[in-house]
Amino acid sequence: MGTYTPDLASTPGGPGSSAAAVAVADVREIPAATPFFGLSKASGLLTLIAAGTATAGHLWVARYAPSQAARFYVTHLRFHWQTLTGFTAAQELALAAFLMTGYSAAHTGGSAEDLLALAPDAGACGLSTRIADTTALTSGTHTIGKQLCRGSFAELAAGDAVGKGYVDEQLPMMDDPHPVIVLEDQMGILIRNEVLMGAAGVGRLTVDIRGYERLVS
Fold first, then answer.
1. What pLDDT score was predicted for residue 124?
2. Are strands 166-171 and 70-85 parallel, antiparallel or unpaired?
3. 65, 66, 63, 73: which is closest to 23 by C-alpha?
4. Is residue 5 part of a domain?
5. Could you report how far apart the first and last alpha carbons of the chain are, in Å?
6. Is pLDDT above 60 for 27?
7. Of 28, 37, 42, 85, which cross-links 202 as Cys (Cβ 3.0–4.6 Å)?
8. Whole-number pLDDT of residue 6
């Protein structure tokens, strides 16, 4: 294992992103019998979400807390925001993903769901997720690291005769030459709202995550 600082400004879904140093593995070395897991989950109808801080604006989290020594290798992470009802006034809408460490207490609120095993004999893994319903999640105990990727859109006022905006960001997939993110015990990923959502606006967040788990000897 080494450390890699991804140039996310040149990767799919990462324009303008801040790079973060993360542990990585070479995806070409995945054994054929490796158990894969995945999940796609949509939020409720979100509105009036606060601008992101250490405790505010948290919309989706993944927390890794394995029952034995192991690592989880994220091979794909995508988040998609769709504005469904326009804001009263024009504004920026922005979402960002962050790596978290020291994640000793989980977020609460919203809807929790474990990843689905993508093979019949894969069993369960130690990565669990939680997504907001109509309001943001309640923060857990964690340290938010540097930004992994960010997407934004200049949302026009509700009365403007134009299509509503969206944000769609992703970190590298299996066929991308870049390495994958590795989560160890008490690490996680956060997707956070970055700009206060103004009056009347409503939208929905969908997050897709896939990866595999390996025991550590």
1. 85
2. antiparallel
3. 73
4. no
5. 14
6. no
7. 85
8. 37
Quote the CA–CA distance of 59 and 206 in Å, as a whole number: 10
Question: Residue 90 falls within a domain, yes or no?
Answer: yes
Q: Are 20 and 146 spatial neighbours (Cβ–Cβ below 8 Å)?
A: yes
In a domain, 172, yes or no: yes
Task: Give the single-character DSSP code of 46.
Answer: B
185, part of any domain:
yes
User: Alpha-carbon distance 116 to 40, whole Å?
Assistant: 9
Provide the domain limits for residue 87. Answer: 13-25+37-215
Q: 121-155, pLDDT tens digit by residue?
A: 778 899 999 999 999 999 999 999 999 999 999 88
b/e sequence 103-118, b meaning 16+ C-beta within 10 Å: beebbeebebeebeee
Lookup: tokens for 1:
């294992």
Q: Which long-range contacts (CB under 8 A, 24 or more apart) does 24-28 make?
A: 24/179, 24/180, 24/181, 24/182, 25/1, 25/73, 25/179, 25/180, 25/182, 26/179, 27/73, 27/75, 27/174, 27/179, 27/180
Sign of CA dihedral 42, 98, 153, 17: negative
- Beta bridge partners, 72, equal 183, 213
- Amino acid (one-letter) located at 213: E
Q: What is the pTM of this model?
A: 0.83
9 within 8 A of 150, measured Cβ to Cβ: no
In the chain, DSSP finds a helix count (H) and a strand count (E) of 0, 14
Q: Which amino acid is at 217?
A: S
Measured distance CA(125)–CA(117) in Å, rounded: 8
